[in-house]
């Protein structure tokens, strides 16, 4: 996160998105109905889902920002993925209903060009959504929030939808194709189904403890290897917990150092990774002796066999004690 004001934007984006999308969805539904534009009504569904997304961002922010507690030792970050999953399911259901209605209208065969007021409404929606796409994308990038990233994708889809509506209305009026508005509406519903499926899959992966990006693991390896006392980075495990990345790694240290020194090296690794890896929520570094610095198994086996054969008669087939020691007892004092 580059700027302190990114946190302020994150805290406000849910409320701003809620107000803007409430106005847009109500306006597009009203104008779509009175103008006879099915495409604009479908476009209103894009804004309606953004209303739901904004509400869930507000609620999700309040819950996910709560500190760790006894019942939730790994935090509340996954609530964002859970809410994203709910959004996708609502979107898929509502889009399925809209797809049924648009298909029915197309099959009826009676079409009329919508009123031009729908065109100006679509253009206004396009401008507003392009602005909020850039705004929400910036917040999502800096904060690494899956909920805000979902909202950003939705605003991008909204802008695409509004531009398609505008083109459909122009075609209906000036190209003699009154059915084009309904075709655009059909295309919008198909796109909404794709978008809903994409959000569902991303949320599902988040709930299943998906590993962090490979680029993050590479940076972790480079940073940990550069720390004095680290001989090797043996393993790295990452997982996404909401907007945070949780890291667990094992480092190899020299066997000659004390346990307290090894612990200090591991703590240094944790500090460096927490300071230099973005969006880190927790770092847990374990240590052990490097593999090449401990005796090989064959060497240990030979030493054990040597100890076991001490005091045995080498000529005895059963390995019994020699006659010098067999049955011998210490002299009484």
**CA distance, first residue to last residue:** 83 Å
Number of domains: 2
Major pleated sheet: 3 strands, mixed
The percent range for helix content is: 55-70%
Q: What's the total number of strands? A: 3
Q: Roughly what is the average pLDDT, rounded to an integer?
A: 79
Condensed summary:
It contains 9 helices and 3 strands.
Write a structural description.
This protein is mainly alpha-helical and 333 residues long. It folds into two domains: 5-207, Cation efflux protein transmembrane domain (Alpha-lytic protease prodomain-like, Up-down Bundle); 214-293, 2-Layer Sandwich (Alpha-Beta Plaits). 64% of the residues lie in helices and 9% in strands. The protein contains nine helices and three strands, in the order H-H-H-H-H-H-H-E-E-H-E-H. It is elongated. Pfam families: Cation_efflux (PF01545), ZT_dimer (PF16916). InterPro entries: Cation_efflux, Cation_efflux_CTD, Cation_efflux_CTD_sf, Cation_efflux_TM, Cation_efflux_TMD_sf, CDF_Transporter, Magnetosome_CDF-Related.
């Amino acid at each position: 996160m580059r700027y302190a004001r990114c946190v302020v934007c994150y805290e406000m984006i849910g409320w701003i998105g809620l107000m803007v999308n409430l106005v847009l969805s109500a306006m597009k539904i009203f104008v779509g109905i009175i103008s006879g534009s099915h495409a604009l009504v479908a476009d209103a569904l894009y804004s309606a889902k953004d209303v739901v997304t904004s509400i869930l961002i507000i609620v999700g922010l309040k819950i996910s920002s709560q500190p760790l507690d006894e019942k939730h030792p790994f935090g509340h970050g996954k609530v964002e993925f859970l809410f994203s999953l709910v959004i996708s399911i609502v979107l898929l259901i509502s889009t399925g209903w809209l797809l049924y209605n648009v298909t029915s209208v197309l099959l009826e065969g009676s079409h009329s060009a919508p009123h031009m007021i729908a065109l100006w409404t679509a253009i206004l929606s396009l401008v507003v959504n392009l602005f909020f796409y850039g705004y929400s994308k910036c917040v999502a990038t800096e904060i690494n929030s899956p909920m805000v990233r979902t909202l950003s994708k939705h605003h991008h889809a909204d802008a695409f939808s509004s531009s398609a509506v505008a083109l459909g209305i122009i075609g209906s009026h000036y190209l003699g194709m009154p059915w084009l508005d309904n075709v655009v509406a059909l295309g919008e519903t198909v796109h909404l189904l794709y978008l809903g499926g994409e959000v569902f899959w991303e949320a599902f992966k988040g709930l299943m403890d998906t590993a962090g990006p490979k680029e993050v693991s590479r940076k972790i390896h480079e940073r940990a290897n550069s720390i004095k006392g680290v001989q090797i980075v043996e393993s790295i495990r990452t997982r996404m917990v909401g907007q945070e990345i949780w890291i667990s790694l094992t480092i190899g240290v020299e066997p000659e150092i004390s346990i307290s020194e090894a612990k200090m090296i591991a703590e240094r690794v944790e500090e460096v990774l927490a300071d230099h890896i973005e969006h880190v929520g927790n770092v847990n570094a374990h240590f052990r002796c490097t593999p090449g610095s401990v005796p090989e198994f064959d060497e240990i086996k030979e030493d054990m066999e040597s100890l076991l054969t001490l005091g045995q008669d080498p000529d005895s087939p059963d390995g019994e004690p020699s006659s010098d020691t067999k049955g011998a007892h210490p002299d009484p004092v």
